[in-house]
Design brief:
Elements: H1 20-23, H2 39-43, H3 54-63, H4 71-90, H5 101-112, H6 122-135, E1 139-143, H7 146-153, H8 160-165, H9 182-194, E2 197-200, H10 209-219, E3 228-230, H11 233-240, H12 243-250, E4 253-257, H13 260-269, E5 275-279, H14 287-294, E6 301-305, H15 309-318, E7 323-326, H16 330-336, H17 351-362, H18 367-384, H19 393-405, H20 409-422, H21 427-441
Parallel strand pairs: 1-2, 1-7, 2-3, 4-5, 4-6, 6-7
Helix pairs in contact: 6-11, 9-15, 14-15, 17-18, 18-19, 19-20, 20-21
């Protein structure tokens, strides 16, 4: 008998990684008049990084497409040039390797598995920020999207002329930089080596993670000394932790960025009285003046939504023993109503949301934090009397799996029994009951 490890997703599952292409950098998809399209479209749930559906991609991978000039044919050509063409070019002519591209990649990943780097999750980064605040020491969280990476790569990996000829990259000016600017480029590279945490792209696209890797090799960055998270970490901190509520409730906050005056009004309407001021940012050239102006305020935390200049600002403020967070488009999410400042104290977290938060940590192998949020799902159901599968069966099944992963078989069995109390005939619960009883019996 085996353990049923099927993960029960919350009813409202939200995968930030699917939005990686859009929200990293100064806006990767450009709307009318070169204004980045962002929260309005995301809110409607249509702004994915893929032009074809999952089902269409599966059919193309299985059968291909032969209509010349059709978008699906371009997609198949891309699959070929991005995979099998590399294999063909590296094989001796007229030699046959009897493995498909998936098998070749799997074999390569097996060889390189010791080289993989686990990115920090939202709670881990939140705990680092909490510790910095408790110790009254500086901390900088910066994020690298396509805008930051292209700026770092200009006239090193790409010429300024190449970048300026690419229509999709016109957003760099909106993101606060003008090319060329080698002095600031090099200064930003130096700041990255001193920063406390770096959000890097998840998407393996040419100007996202692939460009990060190329820059790392060019600069010989030591990954063992870099504290890496997803470049969606600012959204994840909003969505999967209560850190924002803690910051606004307990510390003095300075808001930096051109939308932060709106942000101040927004946060104050929520009842937060900790904001000491706002400072706009007029591009990279304004950074020294912005940092100088921060000295006029008594604050603990700076939330910086200022495009590419945010990285420099955060790095410089951390040297002044301040906590500085590259907040990016998270302010847009909050202002648009798509995201909320979450807390167990203000009824913005229900059992369903607890399960969603727990799922985020469970799939990242942080079973301790996942267990905490599954327990909260149960507790909220019991406290409010709002019982559903997401406050009863689902969290107990998942708590069972969490404790199994944490090596506590007895507690795993107990939570499975609690789940059985709600759904006595649930096949997974019955299967796991037999499994746990066998393990406990055999010691």
């Amino acid at each position: 008998m085996e353990l049923d490890r099927t993960i029960r997703n919350p009813a409202r599952e939200f995968d930030l990684d699917n939005y990686d292409l859009i929200v990293l950098g100064g806006g990767s998809i450009i709307g009318k008049n070169n204004i980045p399209v962002l929260h309005e479209t995301i809110k409607k749930g249509v702004m994915k990084m893929y032009n074809l559906s999952k089902e269409e991609w599966e059919r193309l991978i299985k059968f291909g497409h032969v209509e010349k000039g059709d978008v699906k044919n371009f997609a198949v050509e891309g699959l070929y040039h991005g995979g099998d063409r590399f294999v063909e070019n590296n094989l001796k002519k007229y030699h046959y390797l009897p493995y498909n591209i998936e098998e070749i990649i799997s074999a390569g990943l097996e060889v390189l598995k010791d080289k993989t780097i686990k990115l920090k999750n939202a709670e881990e980064i939140a705990n680092e920020i909490r510790e910095a605040l408790n110790m009254s020491r500086g901390y900088s969280l910066v994020r690298l999207g396509d805008g930051e990476l292209l700026f770092l790569a200009h006239d090193i990996l790409y010429s300024t002329e190449e970048i300026e000829k690419e229509p999709r990259l016109k957003f760099l000016a909106y993101a606060g930089v003008n090319l060329p600017d080698h002095e600031t480029r090099d200064k930003l590279s130096e700041v990255l080596l001193r920063t406390d945490a770096i959000g890097m792209p998840i998407a393996r696209f040419p100007t996202f993670q692939n460009l990060f890797t190329k820059l790392a090799k060019y600069h010989k960055w030591n990954f063992s000394k870099m504290n890496l998270a997803s470049s969606n970490i600012h959204f994840e901190l909003c969505h999967y932790t209560t850190l924002l509520h803690e910051i606004f409730s307990n510390y003095k906050v300075l808001l930096i960025g051109n939308k932060m005056e709106q942000g101040k009004t927004f946060f104050e309407k929520l009842g937060y009285e900790s904001i000491v001021g706002t400072i706009p940012v007029n591009g990279m050239k304004a950074v020294p003046d912005v940092v100088k102006r921060t000295k006029e305020y008594d604050y603990d935390v700076a939330l910086v939504s200022a495009g590419i200049p945010a990285n420099l600002i955060c790095g410089m403020l951390a040297k002044e023993n301040k906590v500085a967070i590259d907040f990016g488009h998270a302010i847009d999410w909050l202002l648009s109503g798509y995201a909320k400042i979450r807390s167990l104290d203000n009824e913005t977290i229900n059992s369903e949301y607890c399960c969603e938060m727990a799922y985020y940590y469970f799939i990242r192998d942080d079973f301790k934090t996942a267990a905490y949020w599954y327990k909260q799902a149960v507790k909220i159901g019991e406290t409010t009397g709002h019982f559903s599968s997401l406050s009863t069966t689902t969290p107990h099944i998942q708590l069972s799996l969490c404790y199994w992963q944490l090596g506590d078989v007895q507690r795993a069995y107990e939570h499975n029994e609690l789940a059985r109390g709600f759904e006595p005939t649930n096949p997974s619960v019955l299967q796991n009951k037999a499994f746990y009883e066998g393990v406990l019996k055999n010691g």
